């Protein structure tokens, strides 16, 4: 099962650099880095989608959040169980809440918080997220717009 997790991590990591995956973005907050990306679920290999309980479908998107913390040596280490809440909507004001869950990527190699959502071809999507990466600290707010395309 470990090789499957490593494969999943490699595939998800490579998707972050795909042109169709829009762009992988990040925000640095002190010693923490919050990575976020959006992509169509059709980019996922069938085995990967099944492993994470995701539906591969035209018009279905995936939002992935990964939080890493810099250690004293400058290495980025995965943060387990950040709390993520938020919504996605169109520019006309129609809003849908996102339901997040954490998935382990490899055994001890990292964690991502994911949510799936529906989208229409070439429609701008506004994401409003709150990421709590450290207990007792205020949530970091992320706001961004992405377009996804149905092929």
Automatic annotation (TrEMBL):
This is DUF4426 domain-containing protein. It comes from Marinospirillum celere. Pfam families: DUF4426 (PF14467). Residues 1-21 form the signal peptide. InterPro entries: DUF4426. Keywords: Signal. Residues 28-151 form the DUF4426 domain.
């Amino acid at each position: 099962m470990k090789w499957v997790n490593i494969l999943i991590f490699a595939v998800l990591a490579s998707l972050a650099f795909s042109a169709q995956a829009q762009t992988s973005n990040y925000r640095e907050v002190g010693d923490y880095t919050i990575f976020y990306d959006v992509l169509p679920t059709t980019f996922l290999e069938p085995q990967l989608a099944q492993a994470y309980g995701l539906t591969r479908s035209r018009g279905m998107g995936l939002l992935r959040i990964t939080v890493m913390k810099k250690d004293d040596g400058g290495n980025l280490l995965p943060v387990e169980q950040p709390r993520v809440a938020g919504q996605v909507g169109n520019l006309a004001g129609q809003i849908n809440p996102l339901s997040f869950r954490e998935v382990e990527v490899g055994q001890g190699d990292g964690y991502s918080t994911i949510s799936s959502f529906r989208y229409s071809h070439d429609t701008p999507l506004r994401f409003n997220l709150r990421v709590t990466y450290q207990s007792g600290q205020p949530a970091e707010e992320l706001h961004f717009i992405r377009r996804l395309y149905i092929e």
